[in-house]
Amino acid sequence: xxxxxSGLLVLFMxxxxxxxxxLSMAAIGGLVAGSGxxxxxxxxxxxxxxVDSFPLxxxxxxxxxxxxxMVGTMAQRITNFAFACVGWxxxxxxxxxxxxCMFFAGISGSxxxxxxxxxxxxxxxxxxxxxxxxxxxxxxxxxxTIAVVIPPSIPMIVYGVTAGVxxxxxxxAGIIPGILIGLSIMALNYYIARxxxxxxEKGKFEVxxxxxxxxxxxxxxxxxxxxxxGIRGGVxxxxxxxxxxxAYALVVGMFIYKDLKLRDLPEVFMRxxxxxxxxMFIIAGANLFGWxxxxxxxxxxxxxxxxxxxxxxxxxxMLINVVLFIAGCxxxxxxxxxxxxxxxxxxxxGVGIDPVFLGLVMVVNLxxxxxxxxxxxxxxxxxxxxxxSFGHLVRGVLPFILVLTIDLLIITYFPQLSMWLPNLLxx
Length: 427
Hints:
single chain, 78% helix, 0% strand, globular
């Protein structure tokens, strides 16, 4: 059955069937062509139980919070604050794009939402300033990957539910790696800007501008702090924090900034609902696919086979990263996590790898898939915004893929970097 499942999935993806439908149809095909010992009623049961989860309710609320913040001036206020922080340095606009993505990452949890919000504002401005279109688009697309590392992260929620580990611990573990990735992107921006002669003029940090932008954007900037402190302080669960985030964004937009109108809400809710449906459909199909692999005892066989070759956890971490990188080039992060977690978790536990750390490595690795061909979602988003050829865009993004890969290796082989904070704060 495993060969049938894999073959059907590859076939459907080659002919362009959407990933959620590909996973579901491959699983159904495997059931029909299999031994016949599993009744077909299991299909509807697994599809339903996959999304019948209280923690997964966090996904629609975080997506709604992100949509609410993009309607009025909240997104612009965050960008203005980022500009006051780093807009005066070399490659200032590229640095603003990266820092703005880091701030948005603490709100939406979605790489696509992050890339859209910042890309629409910053890519046209960078082009007018003389930046190469490929570099401008690649910068925003890469910075958008930070949204799935810095909490709240939708892939982290999916992993927490699939692996049965603390989502709060995952969120805390993602803070320092997310900052590391953001700083490394900014360092590459600086290097490329010097090499190609972008933004030659030097500015200076202006305290007045900084204070003004902070005052205007403080309500939006407080949301990530409320989420993390509330979860780690035990005030509310990750799901409750998502509902609070959505309510907070609604109140701030309508009654404090007063730029979110009642007439805007139907469209906001519709966009959030569509994105939620897409994510949930992927999770449901991937869960069915992964359940069939588990029914064939693939995780146990895979773990036994690899452990027979080596029990060195550093070699196994490298192998896991290679598998995840390939999967990230072909699958949506949520689908890859739902399928691969049951396969990799027993192996990781067998060699003493912390399940929370494994989840962090998976999320960071799969975030690179957002900018790797052939299905890198962020690439297609910025391509639509900047109207650039795909080949030009890929050439621009290659240096960023290299830098993110180096970051991944640092995070993988120096676990103290990411785990000291959740260990300090406790479960």
